[in-house]
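Exercise 7.
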Amino acid sequence: MSANPEDAALRENKEEELIEKLEVVTVPSPSLKGLPVKQYAVESQLQVHEWPHVGSGDFDVGVVASFGRLLSETLILKFPYGVLNVHPSCLPRWRGPAPIIHTVLHGDTVTGVTIMQIRPKRFDVGPILKQETVPMPPKITSKELEVLLSRLGASMLISVLKNLPESLSNGRPQPTEGVTYAPKISAATSCIKWEEQTSEQILRLYRAIGNITPLQTLWMKKTIKLLDLVEVNNSVLEDPKLTEHAVIPGSVVYHKRSQVLLVYCKDGWIGVRSVMLKKALTAADFHNGYLHQWYQKGSPAEARQCRFHTLRPPTEKQKKRTRCCATVH
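Solution. The predicted structure, written as tokens, is:
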């Protein structure tokens, strides 16, 4: 497991004699402390194993949450009741390693948690033992949604374990319709496409991945990270500055009253409160240090240069070609 609420719930239910023995397997982490689940397990004096080592003890059932490793049939068969997966989506929607991010990114209005049985060497395809849905709170971030679904998943897991034989016998196959996939987020995902993405899509992208990696764009051929994005209210949009010249996607205007950078995208404006160039800058800092000198020149042609451009990272094919050229030289 790799999420605290499930681990904590199992630990707490030892007092109800539901759990007699509990050990934890965690994947390696670059941090010395390890993943949060390892920290919790160590603090709670639970036996911890690091994958692929799983210990030699006999256990009735295995549980995984955000584990990200395929399990062999040999390992699954070690558990008389198999291995359960706590998956933060309503399977078969969003199979894969990043369901919460894709739920936010695609503007889903309903989400949930699925408790399912693991099948050997396949991700997220086993029978459903329990599934609950919840409405998506408006403007929720992936980090906030993770907390909400972790608590729901912990409660559902205990419910399944309390009636495990019955839960297993009532398991149902996943529907063949409505299957979608939630792949890992790449660096390219964080690059805003001003000409193609609407304000709503950009704000959803920020809520989905902003806590993991900042959104990126180009300013005068330099990469700039957008740290804090906000919606733009109607009173700001009435500013004549926004309509006195034809605007093109990526155009940047500083709105002094709200102290926000306004950036034009496919269908309207978004607000940016802070950015990162050489260091973190507020919108006012960026205006004073970078924007102001362009607007001082006064011409529409100069103003049009005050814009963000879409950052297009090299594709894998381009990276490979570069490596090959480097080898030849």
